[in-house]
Write a structure and sequence with these properties.
Low-confidence stretches: 1-6
Structural class: alpha/beta
Shape: globular
Radius of gyration: 23 Å
CATH topology of one domain: TIM Barrel
Oligomer: single chain
Number of helices: 18
CATH superfamily of one domain: Metal-dependent hydrolases
Largest sheet: 9 strands, mixed
Strand content: 15-25%
Distance between the termini: 14 Å
CATH class of one domain: Alpha Beta
Number of strands: 20
Mean pLDDT: 95
Helix content: 25-40%
Length: 537
C-alpha cells in the first residue's frame, strides 16, 4: 500500500464547492487529508496548485462501473485510468450485475462477462480481500467492491437452474459473509444474466442477511428489462429487503442499478420504496442507448446457460440455427425494447475475432449487408467466431429527451453511475463521457443541478450510501480525493460515432492527497486503494 504523502499541497485561489455553497477559498492537504479550508498561508516548500477561476470539488464516485480489472498496470489500462480521471472520477464501485472475479478463481467472470469486465491479471483467486489487495498501491484510483451474487451461486451450484438446497444456500451465505468481512460494501445481483436469472427472492433474501448485519447495501440489476416492468422488479427488491431485514434483525439498504424508465415510473417506484420504509437510492446515466453482451438479447437464456463450447457447437449446427431462426428470433421481433428493427438497433462495439474486426461501429444490419448475408446468419456467425465474447451498443425505439432525464436526475435518491464498459474498439461513449456529460448538460445547459447539487449527486450521496468514509465533501478532516474543474470548459467529447475521446475541463486530480492527474496527464503515483467498508479512512 502506498504511504501517505508527507509534503503539503495548497490548492490556491479556487472556489470550493461545499454541501450548501460555493466559496472562494484555499485548500490545504497534509498527509492524505484536508487540513484546512480557507485562507492558507503557504510555506516555502509547499506544492502549489493554481486553481484560479476553477472549482475545487470532491472526487467523483462512479456508483456503477465495469472497470473492475482495468485499474492497475500500464498500456490500455493506463488509458482507462486517464479516461476516468479526466472525468473527475476518483473511486469506482465494482462487482456489479452479480458477476465479477471474486470470490473464486475468476474464470467464470472472465468467460461469461469477458466482453463486459475483461480479464484481471492482478487477481489471484483469493476472494474479495484478494481483489481489494490487488488495487492497493497499484492504481491511481480507488475501488470499492460488491459481492456478486451470480458468481457466488456459480461457485456453489455451477450451472444448475434449480433452487439451491439447504446445504448449497448455507455455503453461498458463508461466501457472502466472508466477502463482507473482507470489506465488501454490499451484494449485487444481475437477474437477467446467468446464473442470476435462476436466483429467486427467497435465495437472495438469505444471501442478504450477512449484508444487512454488516450494514451493507443490496444492489440490483432488476429482473425483466426495467421500463414498464419496473414495478415488478422494485417489488422483488422490497421483498428481498424485508426478508433479509426480518431474518437479520437489521435494516437492509437497497440500490437500483442503471434505472432506465420514464421519469414518472422511476420517481413513483423510488417513492414507493421510501413509503415502505426502505433506504433506497439508484443510479442512472445520461444516455438513452444501452450496452451489453451481444448474446443476451440474441440467444435464448437456456442456451447461454450452457458451457461456451456447447453453445459454439450449437451455433455451428444447421438444424439448431434453423430452430433459432424459426422459434427464437420471432420473439425478438415481438420484444418491445427491440422489435423487428433489431438489426439496425444493435451496433457492434467489441468483436474479438480478426475476421470481423472491420465490423466495429457498424450495425448488424449494415455489417450483414456488407458481408452479403442476412442479419440472423451474420449475428450467429459473429457469436460463434467470438465465442460469445462480443458486446453491442443497443439503441431504443423511443428516445427520451434530456428534459425527461433531468426529472430523473433531480430526484434526491439519484447517484451518478456510468455503467461504463471499456472493452471494445467502438464502445459506448458513457465509459469516457458520463461525468462530463452530467456537468455540461445538467449544470450548464439545463440548470437541473447547481454546482453544490452536482457535488451531492456525483459524490457525497454515493459516499454515504456505500460507506466510503469521509469522502464526497471538501471539508477539514476529509480524505483529500479532490478534482479541480474548469466550469467554462468542462464537457464530454465521446460520442456514439467517436466513443474513445476523453472528457476535457478537468486537468488536476488528487487521490488521498497525491496528484494523479496534472495538467491533464497521468502522474506516476499510485495512491489508490481497495476501499474496505470497515476501514475507509
Amino acid at each position: 500500500m502506498a504511504e501517505a504523502p508527507s509534503s503539503r499541497i495548497v490548492l490556491r485561489g479556487g472556489s470550493v464547492v461545499g454541501s450548501d455553497a460555493v466559496t472562494l477559498a484555499d485548500v490545504l492537504v497534509v498527509g492524505g487529508h484536508i487540513a484546512e479550508v480557507g485562507e492558507v498561508t503557504a510555506r516555502p516548500d509547499d506544492q502549489i496548485i493554481d486553481c484560479t477561476d476553477r472549482l475545487i470539488m470532491p472526487g467523483f464516485i462512479d456508483a456503477h462501473s465495469h472497470a473492475d480489472g482495468l485499474l492497475t498496470g500500464g498500456g490500455d489500462d493506463a488509458g482507462v485510468q486517464r479516461a476516468l480521471l479526466r472525468q473527475g472520477v476518483t473511486t469506482i464501485i465494482a462487482g456489479q450485475d452479480g458477476v465479477s472475479y471474486a470470490p473464486g478463481d475468476g474464470a467464470y467472470a472472465s468467460e461469461y462477462f469477458g466482453a463486459i469486465n475483461g480479464p484481471f491479471t492482478g487477481y489471484a483467486g483469493d476472494g474479495i480481500e484478494g481483489y481489494l489487495s490487488a488495487i492497493d498501491g497499484a492504481s491511481r484510483l480507488n475501488a470499492a467492491v460488491l459481492v456478486p451474487a451470480g458468481t457466488v451461486r456459480w461457485e456453489v451450484c455451477g450451472r444448475s437452474q434449480e433452487p439451491a438446497d439447504a446445504a448449497q444456500l448455507a455455503a453461498m451465505t458463508d461466501l457472502v459473509a466472508q466477502g463482507m468481512a473482507d470489506g465488501a460494501v454490499g451484494l449485487s445481483t444481475g437477474l437477467d444474466y446467468v446464473p442470476g436469472m435462476f436466483q429467486d427472492a427467497d435465495e437472495l433474501a438469505a444471501l442478504c442477511v450477512p449484508v444487512a448485519r454488516a450494514g451493507g447495501v443490496y444492489v440490483s440489476h432488476m429482473r425483466g428489462g426495467y421500463e414498464r416492468n419496473a414495478a415488478a422488479g422494485i417489488d422483488e427488491i422490497a421483498t428481498i429487503a424485508d426478508g433479509a431485514g426480518a431474518a437479520s434483525g437489521a435494516p437492509l439498504a437497497v440500490h437500483v442499478s442503471h434505472f432506465h424508465a420514464d421519469a414518472d415510473i422511476v420517481i413513483g417506484q423510488m417513492d414507493a420504496l421510501a413509503a415502505r420504509g426502505l433506504e433506497a437510492t439508484f443510479d442512472a446515466y445520461p444516455y438513452i442507448r444501452g450496452c451489453s453482451l451481444m448474446s443476451m438479447p440474441l440467444l435464448p437464456p437456456e442456451l447461454t446457460a450452457q458451457p461456451v463450447a456447447d453453445v459454439i457447437t450449437a451455433l455451428a449446427d444447421p438444424e439448431e440455427r434453423e430452430r433459432l431462426r424459426r422459434d427464437w428470433f420471432p420473439r425478438i421481433d415481438g420484444n418491445p425494447s427491440l422489435g423487428p428493427d433489431w438489426p439496425t438497433m444493435l451496433t457492434l462495439a467489441h468483436v474479438p475475432a480478426d475476421e470481423y474486426h472491420w465490423t466495429h461501429g457498424l450495425t448488424i444490419a449494415a455489417a450483414a449487408e456488407k458481408a452479403g448475408t442476412d442479419p440472423i446468419s451474420f449475428a450467429l456467425d459473429v457469436l460463434r467466431a467470438t465465442r460469445l465474447q462480443a458486446n453491442v451498443v443497443m439503441a431504443v425505439a423511443h428516445e427520451r429527451p434530456a428534459s425527461e432525464l433531468a426529472r430523473i436526475f433531480a430526484h434526491p435518491a439519484h447517484v451518478a453511475g456510468s455503467d461504463g464498459i471499456f472493452i471494445g474498439a467502438h464502445p459506448h461513449p458513457r465509459a469516457r463521457g458520463t461525468f462530463g456529460c452530467y456537468l455540461r448538460e445538467y449544470v450548464h445547459e439545463l440548470g437541473t443541478w447547481s454546482w453544490t447539487d452536482a457535488a451531492t449527486h456525483l459524490s457525497r450521496t454515493a459516499a454515504e450510501r456505500f460507506g466510503l468514509g469521509r469522502r464526497g465533501v471538501v471539508e477539514q478532516g476529509a480524505v483529500a480525493d479532490l478534482v479541480v474543474v474548469d466550469p467554462r470548459t468542462v464537457t464530454d467529447q465521446a460520442t456514439y460515432e467517436e466513443p474513445l475521446r476523453d472528457a476535457v475541463g478537468i486537468h488536476d486530480v488528487l487521490v488521498a492527497g497525491v496528484p494523479v492527474l496534472a495538467d491533464g496527464e497521468l502522474t506516476a503515483a499510485l495512491p489508490g486503494r481497495g476501499l474496505r467498508r470497515a476501514d475507509v479512512i
